[in-house]
């Protein structure tokens, strides 16, 4: 049997990889407008980072983590020897815990300074049951803002998230923005206790996992996909009826700013999100087009206690992450995925064997001048080279033969206009650059702030 990629993982073939690159480029251009800087954390961390940050009782930590062990540690484990804490590592299931760890480790968010804003991109790993839009290795782009307690920071983050989706080509009316407040240490314990009581009182109508959640993490019951549980939990106590005054005020201010920014949202008092670090505002963006049950293309919220869990002084924080594979499925379903694999600006074709080294040197010179050039490395005939140039989508073929070499002027054939000119290297560069600036007018529409779809 030939080897295949692992279940739940995907090879990103050029078209797909290019779609991701474009999402990353658009994120980079947009996030700069909001003051975010790129931060890269390792793909694996000490497991404790995730257990402490995300929560031991979450599905992500208790069921879905990929542990990483060195060969030496694996052998010792097999011999019943205990592992040292620093030997227990895991692939990151999400980006927030690692960023929080890095921010504390490098003292990137100090009290009294302006808020620190970081964005990241990369693979995340969760051992979930693969299905449409749900992979075991997937790509996220995320942002984290540390040090900002005001509701305007929550609203800014949500506006950024929605603007990003719009820039990518997802129309506002295709998305549902759900928001909720999870309360804080003042009001959440009472809500949690009431939900626990509700679970115990209605245990007969709930799945065994939800029954167990009464003791581990009652709020996770709101995430249960079992339709009977979901139906019953609509009658469970709602956090929005129990928020303390300051959480209520914060939530009201966030909603009023979102309304001022003309964003439509739906309040969902059962939106709890799958990670334990959230306090106050949480949100999720759902789209039906192109997705099945896994219809969240992004989500996030506030986590005012997370940095303290990593040993920092009290530092509020908030962020979001989006799933690139899911966004791609949505764009495809909406007919808004418009990925163009780059074609060479010019194909340099040799008329005979003696001209091949000149063709090679012309390619080198053109690339040194910032132009993309391609040539044949398989001894094709001139006719086949021109055909290849056409197949690669190159608008020009630069023909090099004995005559051209003698005169230092090469035949630049337009494969679209079917015209030819004899030009020296500098003239060729000018013609190709003129074409670049004429066609780059079309790509301007892809920049953030533009309303046209990519
Ligand atoms: P999350 O909701 O777990 O949040 O993931 C964010 C997004 O990643 C989801 O909305 C979804 O689009 C994508 N995603 C999650 N799991 C998978 C999967 N198995 N396959 C494909 N896509 C997936 C977080 O990860 C938080 N760290 C977000 C955050 C940042 N909260 C605060 N700061």
Name the features.
single chain, 454 residues, alpha+beta, BirA Bifunctional Protein, domain 2, Rossmann fold, 2 domains, 5-stranded mixed beta sheet, 39% helix, disordered C terminus, binds histidyl-adenosine monophosphate
How large a portion of the residues is in β-strands, by DSSP E?
15-25%
In angstroms, what separates the terminal alpha carbons?
41 Å
Average of pLDDT: 93
Largest sheet: 8 strands, mixed
Q: Assembly state here?
A: single chain
| Shape designation | elongated
What percent of the residues sit in helical stretches (DSSP H or I)?
A: 25-40%
Low-confidence stretches: 441-454
Descriptive report:
- By secondary structure, this protein is α+β, with helices and mostly antiparallel strands.
- The protein has helices at residues 14-33, 47-54, 59-62, 71-78, 96-105, 151-168, 188-201, 208-216, 227-233, 245-260, 306-309, 324-333, 356-368, 382-391, 402-407, 425-443; strands at 37-38, 44-46, 67-68, 89-91, 116-125, 137-146, 175-181, 266-267, 281-287, 296-302, 317-323, 346-350, 373-375, 396-400, 410-414, 420-423.
- The strands form three sheets. An eight-stranded mixed sheet has the order 1-5-6-11-10-9-7-8.
- The relative contact order is 0.12.
- Mean pLDDT is 93; it is low at 441-454.
- It binds histidyl-adenosine monophosphate.
- Histidyl-adenosine monophosphate is lined by residues 94-96, 126, 128, 133-135, 138, 140, 142, 144, 274-275, 296-301, 319-323, 325-326.
